[in-house]
Amino acid sequence: MAAMEAAYSIFSSCLPSSPKFPLCPISSPSLRRHVSTSNPALSLKSPPCPLPRLSINPTRKLASFKVFSALEEIAVEEKPEEKIQLANPMRKLYVHNLPWSLTVDDMKNVFGECGTVADVEIIKQKDGKSRGFAFVTMGSGEEAQAVIDKFNSQELSGRVIRVEFAKRFKRPPPPPPAGPPLRETRHKLYVSNLAWKVRSSHLKEFFTADFKPVSTRVVFDSPSGKSAGYGFVSFATKEEAESAISALDGKELLGRPLRLKFSEKNIEVSADGKEEEDISEEPQQS
């Protein structure tokens, strides 16, 4: 109030005691209406009061500035202070090493001592039994912190429980879409007499030393999952496939000499990974 009174006194000192520019006296309206056949018009009986010329006094301008500054300071002083308390956004707790017999209601009763329990989720196995840990969501971050302070490393029904803030893990990005199915070329070699431990990577390394195969594949027996002892290597041209036969037929790979020849029919790998093969050669007999 003292500040308001000071501002009012400053404002009052800036106002003149009597108006320097008196307003026009308000007289009774004396509008005379002239009616004509062309245009109706309104005319004033007496000319309007002339507007006074305003002059700006620097002293008064400064005083006015002080008045508004004082009013602004008063508004700031009288505005209540807003205390913004950033609440802890983490309300979800991870509670583990729980007794197996503990129920949702039991946990609500226990953690309810620290505030409002918004949700309890006990993680269970397929048979419905507890896995010994749960997620508890409190009403606020402060209440969640209170639960940690009070119950972490404390014994509950014979077990020392652990309470901590639940961590948020980012979901891994989805795997890239599978590429088009492998389609072997018609310039394909049938490679037999493979060692049982030979894999497609071995074939690729063996042939890429001198050539550029399009694909390499070892065939496996479906029921047992073991190598069938043969595979296929495809090339972009027939000439390159013939050169591979001439250079590598009879060469050893992991201790066994390879047998190379052209495959009579194509083998394609379908979109679901299953092999569709129709070849005239039979796998080697051991």
TrEMBL record:
GO terms for cellular component: chloroplast thylakoid membrane. One of its GO terms (biological process) is chloroplast rRNA processing. Coiled coil: none annotated. Residues 266-286 are annotated as: Disordered. This is RNA-binding (RRM/RBD/RNP motifs) family protein. GO terms for molecular function: mRNA binding. It comes from the Eukaryota. Residues 91-168, 187-265 form the RRM domain. Keywords: RNA-binding. The keyword Ribosomal protein does not apply. The keyword RNA-binding applies. Residues 274-286 have a biased composition (Acidic residues). It comes from Actinidia rufa. PANTHER family: OS02G0815200 PROTEIN (PTHR48025), RRM DOMAIN-CONTAINING PROTEIN (PTHR48025:SF6).
